[in-house]
Write a structure and sequence with these properties.
Distance between the termini of chain B: 27 Å
Order of helices and strands of chain A: HHEHEHEHEHHEHHHHHHHH
Oligomer: heterodimer
Number of strands of chain A: 5
Strand content of chain A: 5-15%
Strand content of chain B: 5-15%
Largest sheet of chain B: 4 strands, mixed
Shape of chain A: elongated
Number of domains of chain A: 2
Radius of gyration of chain B: 31 Å
Largest interface: A-B, 97 and 103 residues
Distance between the termini of chain A: 42 Å
Structural class of chain B: alpha/beta
Shape of chain B: elongated
Chain lengths: 403, 379
């Protein structure tokens, strides 16, 4: 196992880059978790868009009422009344709805020249529409009560309106099927997994190949008593071991980060998720093997790792939901293994029963992944044999300026 | 001598396939992927008709007012709030809900009832629509009860006057997509590091055979470095401009109309990138592979914090860790492009450009100090 041991030593020396990728990935997962909200619940939970109130008028029962209403239905984001800060918040969706109360608004309300409230949202934003409709409903009710009871104080009117606004429709959430779907955070974690597994496979396998393909070393190894097949097998074994270790580490990270969210999820769904990601690991390793044949320097190694992983992740739906890709792009995406991984993942995450018909598409997508892994492995073996014999592999060290 | 070194450097770079792949082809492929992947990203946040089922049972048939309201908010028009499918039984509605054809269904009654499959923004809007109907209906009832002749109040309620108006503080609308392209351009600028690295490593005798030969040449070391760096900057600037042109002219990404300032950002960004690479490479102890690793991982980290992988990350960091944001060159490049797109004045833009320029000067200065008097006892 001399080659195997050497492989392990090489990986140890180059572990810094792999650890950096792992840390970035872990940080990315934590950020993404905070951004997404679980859709599944047996009770209705309203979405709470972010809003900001900028009051340029004096505080009055009318403006206090508007604040109270918005606080019921949204999350307040406090911003300073500075144009730059408001613009930035609107651009980056830090605040979905900025309500600006102009000076003299409360005083002018109800008169002929009543001022309008100013709002700032992204054009046609759904969240903006939602909060805007609430504010308008509030103002309309205040206006009606003011007409009906001119003798009432503003506080009385606002109190009555806020009470009116507490009335609402009955809502029922009907979870179909018998099991709770997998939490969205876990789904996102596994989506991002495909990216990091590809990066890792290409980087780690190419590190090994690069070391053994140096012209002088390669020539020396060719005339050693060790059979070429045994050498390749040992390199492959090391790659497989590394991949599996990485996969276990990722799974543990997932359980550590999202263990609490998995309560109530069927363990079978969890096993399916792990199986799916393990199959994708096999695909990634075979892609790494294939890429390893072409990679000859540190530069092209990073380029290949990023090219393949970013490209496949974008096309396969790991970063952007598949339904946002056009029909034409979806046809192309079917030729990318990530597409099948994500398809299986999406199906597993929305699985409500484990009967044959629901499972059929999952098995299908998994089978396609195995097919990809075998096909790419075959191609890379043939290529490696062909390229191992080619003259290019034995170039001399150059000492001239490369023009 | 200038043209000799400068020209050869440019030719040499153009024939270096590795760097070309990184700085030319990679960003172009990535921006094309962005183009296809993000084409409907802006639509994700916009309001579109919510697919809803309405059960036409006895209660619905008996409630003329509810029928009228449903009719008013649904229809074929694009701006209709609901895309309604009428069904006869609750079972039919359940099937539509389970298969995901509708986001919820409504049953009329004394208090209308909404049945959903999951929580979400569309579901919240549906609930809010029904709530508002109930609130308005109950208020009208109260008004009738208290003062049947006071129709003015009812009219005010039914007219649903708008008390708000949208103001826009900027010429270009906010966009979820452009930030990704800005971050990509920042990444390309920072990849100028490969050019800086090449210059320094090919001039350090212990790093490459070419470096050993060049060190022995009679040309002044300082001049060699400056001419070579100029060649690297020229090629890299050309590359950033090419990527920018590809994005604006072929993909049609809207960067605003301040072309001159955009080109200036690319130039300063390239300078900063090249200076960064030269600085990383100046240490004679690290091996080339380690320097490449440092360069790519720092670039990737900066770009992540600049919003390349998660849109808006630069804003989150600027809000919570402002110092880190000001020191991150990728975030400064992204912010410069953002200012050009979104702001009418140049104040913040010039501040960004100033910071980037200062970073480049400091980095070149430190590099200069290090390579000025390097001598080798043995290589």
């Amino acid at each position: 196992m001399r080659v195997f041991n050497t492989c392990i030593r090489i990986v140890k020396r180059r572990s810094a880059a792999l650890i950096i990728y792992f840390v970035i990935f872990a940080a990315l997962s934590v950020v993404m978790t905070n951004l997404s909200v679980d859709k599944y619940s047996t009770d209705f939970v309203a979405s709470k868009p972010a809003y900001t109130v900028i009051n340029r008028d004096q505080e009055s029962p009318l403006t206090q009422g508007a604040r109270e209403l918005l606080a019921r239905y949204g999350e307040e984001v406090r911003l300073a009344d500075e144009e730059e800060e408001l613009k930035d918040a609107a651009f980056y969706h830090a605040s979905d709805y900025i309500l600006m109360i102009p000076p003299g608004f409360s005083e002018s309300f109800g008169s002929e020249n009543s001022l309008k409230l100013e709002t700032m949202t992204t054009p046609d934003s759904a969240k903006g529409y939602y909060l805007d409709s609430l504010v308008n409903q509030y103002m309309n009710l205040v206006d009606s009560w003011r007409i009906l009871h001119p003798e009432w104080t503003e506080q009385q009117i606002v109190d009555t309106v806020l009470q009116d606004l507490s009335k609402g429709a009955d809502v029922e959430i009907r979870p179909f099927g018998s099991t709770q779907p997998v939490s969205e955070q876990v789904q996102i974690f596994y989506m991002l997994n495909s990216y990091i597994m590809l990066v890792f496979s290409v980087l780690s396998l190419s590190v090994l190949f690069m070391a053994f393909r140096k012209p002088d070393l390669h020539m020396r190894n060719l005339c050693s008593p060790l059979k070429s097949r045994s050498m390749n097998l040992q390199i492959g074994l090391c790659g497989m071991l590394l991949g599996t270790l990485f996969w276990i580490l990722l799974t543990i990270l997932g359980l550590f980060l999202y263990g609490g969210r998995l309560e109530g999820t069927d363990p079978r769904s969890l096993l399916l998720l792990m199986l799916n990601s393990f199959l994708f690991l096999l695909v990634s390793l075979s892609i790494g093997l294939l890429a390893g044949n072409f990679i000859k320097s540190g530069n092209s190694q990073n380029a290949a790792a990023n090219f393949l992983s970013l490209g496949m992740s974008f096309l396969g739906g790991a970063f952007v939901p598949l339904d946002m890709l056009g029909a034409g792009m979806l046809q192309v995406a079917r030729f990318v293994p990530t597409y099948w991984y994500i398809t299986a993942l999406n199906k597993i995450c929305s699985l409500s029963s484990f009967d044959a018909s629901s499972m059929k598409e999952i098995w299908q997508a998994m089978a396609v992944q195995i097919g990809f892994a075998v096909a790419i492995l075959c191609v890379s073996l043939v290529l490696s044999k062909y390229m191992g014999q080619s003259e290019k592999n034995f170039g001399a060290v150059r000492t001239e300026v490369e023009l | 001598m200038f043209w000799n070194i400068y020209g050869k450097r440019i030719r040499g770079t153009l024939r270096d396939k590795d760097t070309l792949i990184w700085t030319w082809i990679f960003p172009i492929v990535l921006s094309t992927l962005f183009y296809f992947a993000f084409s409907s990203l802006d639509k994700e946040y916009t309001l579109s008709s919510i697919p809803t089922a309405v059960v036409m049972d006895e209660a619905y048939e008996a409630d003329a007012m509810f029928q009228e309201v449903i009719g008013a908010v649904s229809g074929e028009e694009e701006d209709a709030l609901l895309a309604v499918t009428f069904v006869n039984t609750v079972e039919e509605a359940d099937t539509l809900l389970e298969t995901g054809e509708v986001e919820g269904y409504i049953q009329a009654g004394e208090v209308p009832r909404l049945v959903l499959k999951e929580n979400g923004l569309n579901q919240t809007i549906l609930k809010s629509f029904l709530d508002q109907y109930i609130q308005k209906y109950s208020s009208i009832e109260t008004i009738h009860r208290e003062d049947p002749d006071h129709m003015e109040a009812v009219t005010a309620l039914l007219q649903q006057e708008s008390f708000t108006e949208e103001v826009s503080l900027t010429g270009n609308p906010p966009s979820n997509v452009v930030g990704y392209y800005y971050a990509l351009l920042a990444m390309v600028c920072m990849y100028g590091g490969f050019q800086g690295m090449r210059t320094v490593s090919k001039l350090q005798a212990n790093l490459s055979p070419v470096g050993a030969r060049q060190t022995m040449s009679p040309a002044g070391r300082f001049r060699l470095v400056i001419y070579d760096l100029l060649g690297g900057i020229t090629v890299h600037f050309g590359c950033v401009i090419l990527v920018l042109a590809y994005m604006t002219l072929i993909l049609g990404v809207n960067f605003g109309s301040k072309t001159g300032a955009m080109v200036l950002t690319c130039l300063v960004g390239s300078l900063m990138g090249v200076a960064f690479g030269a600085l990383v490479c100046v240490s004679s102890r690290l091996k080339e592979a380690a320097k490449t690793a440092v360069l790519t991982s720092v670039t990737m980290c900066c770009c992540f914090m600049g919003g390349l992988m998660v849109g808006g990350m630069n804003y989150i960091i600027a809000q919570n860790l402002p110092v880190l944001s000001w020191l991150n060159p990728a975030a400064r490049i992204v912010d410069s492009f953002y200012c050009l797109y979104y702001y009418n004045d140049y104040e913040r833009y010039l501040l960004n450009i100033g910071i980037l320029g200062a970073m480049a000067v400091v980095m070149f200065f430190i590099t200069g100090i290090f390579i000025r008097r390097q001598r080798y006892e043995s290589i």
